[in-house]
Amino acid sequence: MGARFTLRGLVIGAKPHRDQDAIISILTPNLGVISAMVPGAKKHSSRLASMATPPILADLVLTDSKGFYYLKEGETVESFRGLYDSFDALTCASHILEVVRDVCVDPESSSILYPLSLYVLYDLSSHPQKYRQIVAAFEWRVMDALGFAFDLNECDCGKVNSMPTRAFSFSRCRLYCSNPACVAAAKDYRYISLGCVEALRYIRTAPLERLSAFHIEKYVLDDLCAVTHQYLCERLEKNYDRMSILDTLPPV
Ligand SMILES: [Zn+2]
Fold it and tell me: Are strands 33-38 and 68-78 parallel, antiparallel or unpaired?
């Protein structure tokens, strides 16, 4: 066996391997995403089984054997237990993990995505009823982190009218006012309320621990969730549809 080392990481994925093993993906603060084999993870008696149940934040002892990592020990730091009391929150966590697995490809992005993912999952676990705005805030911040920042400045036509809406242009990545010429320039857009514009501005600069600490009306939240999700899917060219099941369920 090769070198033995310890790291703190967020397990963001697990795939079965052979009959009893699993390969986990670990998001690290500054090494990107590492894959590691968890021998016997599928055995009921395995003390490492919980390490193959994402999301989990843990201190992990790994060994390096011919460039492949094996998990030897794991100690839970945070298990996000609150997620398991809410189908909504658990579904949203699974969406967040899917996005993080897709976009976190290098050490540079992991230094931003690691703290963002931790805070968002913890928030979701602590406040599962706020799942819609937590996910929207995550989606919006991820876009900034990946260099897809949207221009939230006021329409630059110089004659913004008093209508309390703006056109959120998905292709132009900026806001337009509701003057006919501006709306025409927006091409593919969705009208959003000024409250939604304020929420988008808040999320952009909020400290991570205050990311979802805003209060908005339901119709504003509807706008917010719609635009952050569509913007994410268009920029990443993938239809992230795990959360669509939540729209089919009756309200609790
Ligand atoms: Zn305008």
Answer: parallel
* Distance from Cα 181 to the centre of ligand 1, integer Å: 7
C-alpha gyration radius of the chain: 21
CA 182 to centroid of ligand 1, rounded, Å = 5
pLDDT digits (tens, 9 = 90+) for 89-102: 999 999 999 999 99
Alpha helices by DSSP H, listed for 146-217, are: 180-186, 194-205
Q: Cα(188) to centroid of ligand 1, in Å?
A: 15
Give the pLDDT band (50/70/90) at residue 251. Answer: low
List, for residues 61-71, the tens digit of each pLDDT value. 999 988 899 99
Strand pairing partners for 35? 25
The CA 194 to ligand 1 mean position distance, Å, reads 14
> Domain locations in the chain?
4-78, 81-149+185-248
CA 160 to ligand 1 centroid distance, Å: 5
Q: Specify the CATH number of the domain 4-78.
A: 2.40.50.140
Beta bridge partners of 75: 59
Report the separation in Å between the CA atom of 31 and the middle of ligand 1, taken as the mean of its atom positions.
Answer: 44
Averaged pLDDT for residues 224-240: 96
